[in-house]
From TrEMBL, chains A, B:
PROSITE patterns in alphabetical order: HTH_RRF2_2
Pfam families: Rrf2
Molecular function (Gene Ontology), one example: DNA-binding transcription factor activity
Domain of life: Bacteria
Protein name per its UniProtKB record: Rrf2 family transcriptional regulator
Lineage: Bacteria, Bacillati, Bacillota, Negativicutes, Selenomonadales
InterPro entries xrefs: Tscrpt_reg_Rrf2, WH-like_DNA-bd_sf, WH_DNA-bd_sf
Length: 144, 144
DNA sequence: ACTCATTGTAATAACATGATTTACAATGAG
DNA sequence: CTCATTGTAAATCATGTTATTACAATGAGT
């Protein structure tokens, strides 16, 4: 059981824009070839990132730009942009109300798990696009 | 995007066993009626919990017992018992090797995300079955 | 030894969700 | 006006989860 492609794809899109803006026109087709995924997915994701105020997309002419400095864009924002705001885990919605465990499980377990989710979001908030870009560059250097 | 039922179901199973062992025979049908789910799911989950050394199940006669003290059973063990040991997120497996971002994204993002996953598991390790049982009992008391 | 409720497990179906693909109107710089 | 591109809808495919049915194996109780 894993989270979907969406957040990693969004990260890769933003990294490509950060790295190639000004060098290449970062169209959905261009980005799609880096991720190796369908351009429609890129356009949808780009739409979510635009709605979240992270990028602006030039309709018609094509290409996307970052709105904020990579040091100001966190993984938390990216995650929130592309994922629903919902619980991390799916707790049974119709447990038996006659069972003392069943009638309290949602509240009790839900409380504990929401704390865990918040910790995860805190961790995400500490990782910036600039960090990732830096790691990409370091990895590139050590590649030769 | 959420994790599946499995871990919450496993938690509820263990809570019911802890609460009702000695009072009722905790058969898969009994447990299924608390969770309001199919008994086969219970039996499969119970099998995973047995394999993880958390419960023992009486084949033939029926019923399950905890092998360990609820204070010694953590959410981490329960999570590991029922979920694959895999990455939290699904990073594109075939990114473009000609793109400097594509050819490093797995390593760079994977590293960051594995740290986050480990933090999540650490959080889980701090929550015991006894904690949850206690919360259930408290919630029950405040219910009247 | 027999009974019978129960477990363990396989197989299948039903369902939900994610990803792919095709298609096309709307956009906007040149 | 043109044309590459975006934004979006719809249909399809793939995959994973949950539900359901079925039945052999188990083992305590009689």
């Amino acid at each position: 059981m894993q989270f979907s492609f969406r957040m990693p794809v969004a990260v890769q899109i933003l990294l490509c824009i950060a790295k190639f803006d000004g060098v290449f026109k970062t169209t959905s087709t261009f980005l799609a070839s880096s991720v190796n995924i369908n351009p429609v997915i890129i356009r949808k994701t780009l739409g979510q990132l635009k709605a979240a105020g992270l990028v602006e997309v030039a309709a018609g002419v094509g290409g996307a730009k970052l709105v904020k400095d990579p040091r100001e864009i966190t993984l938390q924002e990216i995650f929130n942009a592309v994922e629903e705001d919902e619980d991390l885990f799916h707790i049974q919605e119709n447990p038996n109300p006659k069972c003392p465990v069943g009638r309290n499980i949602q509240q009790v377990l839900g409380n504990k798990l929401s704390v865990v989710k918040n910790h995860m979001l805190d961790d995400f908030a500490k990782i910036t696009l600039a960090d990732l870009l830096n790691d990409i560059n370091t990895a590139e250097e050590s590649r030769q």
